[in-house]
TrEMBL record:
PROSITE patterns: GLYCOSYL_HYDROL_F1_2
Keyword annotations from UniProtKB, A to Z: Glycoprotein, Glycosidase, Hydrolase, Signal
Protein name stated in the entry: Myrosinase 1-like
Name of encoding gene: LOC113494394
Annotated organism of origin: Trichoplusia ni (Cabbage looper)
GO molecular function: beta-glucosidase activity
């Protein structure tokens, strides 16, 4: 949003629900998130098994900016107290972190449980609880045990059982103290981005087959892990489980592109949400139809989008206790013209749909190549979800801003303020039930292909310093104030 329209918009806001009312509803919770491979380091400590990210960065260091890797990262494995300390300093209500599957199960299977690996997360959970911070666990944030990859990884239907077994171990270890869970982080990245672009582990390119096999198996794996909790643990622990999908908001470039924009939403969000949250379950009908046709056109005998049996549809449908999603940025989409070439989905064009991406000039670019600032996108995304699937308790499980560093991060503060304002409008004007907001991220960390070059943290980390010293940015002070005041109305001289 341009500065000018932001002013106009704030004025409209002021008229409709009171100039001073930038406060969040009572009980609204603020958190921050990280992921195991991005912060922990200690990639081979004690009996930890190798993950696909360990293999990916070691096999060909050139895959990552400046040959960076996550071998040490923020050294959170050895400095867990420091992370708890900064989470407490911010006053977080909860901290969302992920478990490294191969730290707990070195072989990937439950035949061997690592005591040291399991204890690391006990220290983290207990340390957070001691400071009054609720632990919120992600079971899987992209670091599959390598032995499971060797057996086909997400392309093997048995992954659903392997994931169920892992989930049961984890609920048994931590379920007494952890009440908020998501199974998979952004399966659209695990499946679409990995198999189409090959720029993330495991680096296998199989855009037609791998992508959609993985999509189906991710849905089944999530469902099985959700059901294990629901049946075996919920009765005694009363926690809640969902999935953290990544949602890019698509807008039509012109009116003629309206139908295409909806197709794009179904392609990115729908393939990962419809099987779980819709009343009827299964794939979005428009995508099923399109992929059936595309498959025939490309000479396949069956659709590259594997069908769900009725039993599988029922297994997946309804496997949520709340609606979680990660959101960062938006896209405009238009029909491709004859002969135009395509960049790759999901960061670039939507070739499968014959769609080209365009970015309006007033969406300011952020430090990552895929990132443009459009605060209104998060509200539109929420409204679309409600319209598609109905009313839910929504939790934003990631939102944050990429920069190239610096402690005076006014741009990050502006980003958070504008996106949070849209969330307030969605709550107060649109009547949506949004209960949790998770900032990405607590501290600078290993930003996948961008290595340590792109920063998202409230705390700056000095990656040259063996101690990985953490320093609060201006945005850390700002977020702390927002949490304290439970309001966006926090301007003061310090900031
Ligand atoms: C998320 N996109 O990834 C991940 O959950 C984090 O691990 C990551 O560090 C963070 O966002 C920032 O990048 C994304 O296609 C994956 O727009 C894909 C996209 C955005 C974020």
């Amino acid at each position: 949003m341009s500065w000018c329209s932001a002013v106009v918009f704030s004025a409209v806001l002021a008229v409709s629900w009171g100039a001073e009312d930038l406060s969040f509803p009572p009980g609204f919770k603020f958190g921050a998130a990280t992921a195991a491979y991005q912060v922990e380091g200690a990639w081979n400590a004690s009996d930890k098994g190798e993950s696909i990210w360990d293999r990916f960065v070691h096999e060909d260091p050139g895959r990552i900016f400046n040959q960076n890797n996550g071998d040490i990262a923020c050294d959170s494995y050895n400095q867990v107290e420091k992370d708890i300390e900064i989470a407490a300093e911010l006053g977080l209500h909860y901290y969302r972190f992920s478990l490294a599957w191969s730290r707990i199960l070195p072989t990937g299977f439950p035949n061997q449980i690592s005591k040291e690996g399991a204890d690391y997360y006990n220290r983290l959970i207990d340390g957070l609880l001691a400071k009054g911070i609720e632990p919120f666990i992600t079971l899987y944030h992209w670091d599959l045990p390598q032995p499971l990859q060797d057996l086909g990884g997400w392309a093997n239907p048995l992954i659903a059982d392997w994931f169920e077994d892992y989930a049961r171990v984890v609920y048994t270890l931590y379920g007494d103290r952890v009440k908020l869970w998501v199974t998979l982080n952004e399966p659209v990245v695990t499946c679409d981005l990995c198999y189409i672009m090959g720029i993330f582990a495991p680096g296998i390119v199989s855009p037609d087959v791998g992508t959609y096999l993985c999509n189906k198996h991710a849905m089944l794996a999530h469902a099985k892990a959700w059901r294990v909790y629901d049946e075996e643990f919920k009765p005694k622990y009363h926690g809640r489980v969902s999935i953290a999908n990544h949602l890019l908001w698509f807008e039509p470039l012109t009116e003629a592109d309206t139908e295409l924009a909806d197709l794009a939403r179904q392609h990115l969000a729908g393939r990962y949400c419809h099987p779980i949250y819709s009343k009827e379950g299964g794939w979005p009908a428009s995508i099923e139809k399109l992929l059936e046709k595309n498959s025939r056109d490309r000479g396949y005998n069956r659709s590259i989008l594997p069908t769900f049996t009725q039993e599988e549809k029922e297994l997946v449908r309804g496997t949520y206790d709340f609606f979680a999603f990660n959101h960062y940025t938006s896209r405009k989409i238009r029909w491709a013209k004859e002969g135009e070439t395509f960049s790759q989905w999901p960061l670039g064009d939507a070739e499968e749909l014959n769609g080209k991406i365009e970015i309006p000039e007033h969406w300011t670019p952020a430090a990552a190549s895929w990132f443009f600032v459009n605060p209104d996108g998060i509200r539109q995304q929420l409204l679309w979800l409600k319209e598609q699937y109905g009313d839910f308790e929504f939790m934003i499980t990631e939102n944050g801003m990429a920069t190239f560093g610096g402690l005076e991060d006014h741009d990050r503060i502006n980003f958070y303020r504008e996106y949070l304002k849209q969330i307030l409008i969605a709550i107060k004007e649109d009547g949506l039930n949004i209960t949790h907001y998770t900032a990405w991220t607590l501290l600078d960390n290993f930003e996948w292909s961008d290595g340590y070059n792109v920063k998202f943290g409230f705390y700056e980390v000095d990656f040259e310093d063996p101690l990985r010293t953490r320093r609060p940015r201006l945005s850390a002070h700002w977020y702390k104030k927002v949490i304290q005041e439970h309001s966006l109305d926090v301007t003061n001289d310090e900031l």
